[in-house]
Amino acid sequence: MHKFPSHHNRLEVMEWSKFAPEGHLNQQLAILLSDLGIHNDVMERQCLRSLDDLKQLTSGDPKNVLRVLRGSEQPLISIGSLLRCALLSGAPCSEYFISLALERLQELGLKNFESHRNRIQMPETRFFIGVPDAEVRILQEGEVFVRPSYMQNGECRPGKPLVGPVAVTRFPALHPGDVRLLQAVDHPSLHHMNDCVVFPTRGSRDHPSEMSGGDVDGDHFLVIWNRELLPPLCHDPGVGSDALAPSEMANYGAIIGEDPSKPVTIDEIKDFFIQYVENDQLGAISTAFVFHWDVESQDSGSLSPKCLRLAELSSFAVDAAKTGKIPKLPPDLNIAFRGEYVNKNNILSRLQFLAMRLSDQIRSERVKIPELQPYPRLVREENSKYLVEAIALCEQFVEDLVVIFTQYRTNDSNFDVFDLLTLGRSKRKEGFRIAQARAAECISLFQRYLNVFEQEFYEKFGTRMHEDPLAQSDMSIKASAWYEAGYFIAQKLRAEQKSYFVNALQFAWLAHEHLERMLVEQTNEDPNDAERISRSGLHVHPRFIRHVRIV
Description:
single chain, alpha+beta, 6-stranded mixed beta barrel, 17 helices, 9 strands, 45% helix, 9% strand, globular
């Protein structure tokens, strides 16, 4: 394929296939599955399961908490890596920082339900990057190859290829035809293709483009093989923005791009990006779709003329950055959803009712957060040689975080590291970009302090510091000092009525891999602890300790 001439001859890897988390049922998918014949009771059961998982986060039972965390791999829960490792090491759910983190994660999940986001975890579904069967060319039209991986003892292992009917879709999904029913097949020649969905290169139309005009240049697709969620109906796919002529787009007020054959100036590039940011309509289109679908849900639903027009506009909006054709929302469609559903029996209304009814009950049954005290097994008497320096570093760490929050227009002086979990949840695009930049600064800050932690050991042991027993012992002692210093500063800030005292606890757990090693070593030495952890279903092995950074 020749797109344009260029002297750039380097191969740049933007993304690759990797272990994928469970898929989720959001508003758009719930609407389409309901209209395609999936009974509302099925999705309500999935909702209850997700709410029960949120309830287990604050149950105090490490086994149940780990089960939920293993199925909740999402960018916004990267702190879950720390929690899983800590709990697997034998740290109790009653440790203050762990307890508080679990409560914050639960609260974020409940607010997602209450604010109509309905991110309901679904078993036997995964998000995969889409790739073409370009080398072997063995897949026929209507077939896909999917070989998901599974986590076993902390390691990612390839599973068996899926065989049988699957539903595949891509977000945004507003057209009933965006959910495609395909056949998953097993071909040994494709067994090296793990954690991706392989589409055929044969047929009258490529399957990715059938899903709101998708392609295989990095798009992610949701693959569903859960029998309960396979729709009995299948509609013809939407047209897709790449299949429409400019004259057809003009009916919706689209802005047609300039002739691509003429040279492009820097000023034109600037003007395009400004125009794109100012006129991005994807969110408004999705919101208007929910409103019009709700009004029509007793009749034609997502097949109503207005919903079908919005589905086409959504396809244009997704590709606007590439095509230069920015759609405009017509006045007769531009109606914002106000939060109350007209039809109280449609799937979104019923899911909202469940969430509102059970959220308060879940909050009332939370295990009480313990006193702000360090976990005794992580405090060592010999850490005193590092303690004074650790306290000074912790104070500086908290001040550095305050500077970052102030720099990125965080008006609330009580903003703390747990609020980073709301990354990507801002209603305004400007707020999302600020949250992204703020998170990047925080990650950089965490890494700088970790470099400070390891510097003296690198100077003394070099690259052997991660294998040398003496270095590992000293690093555990220093990690214990940082842990104790974090709690000391947190107690001090709390006494001063500073609600961002939890920022000091972030410092306490910065060197968490060494704290986890301490817990594992103590567990291996204490047969009573080993027996207790074995009964709880936690398998302790040093192999699981990884260099995971806190976000």
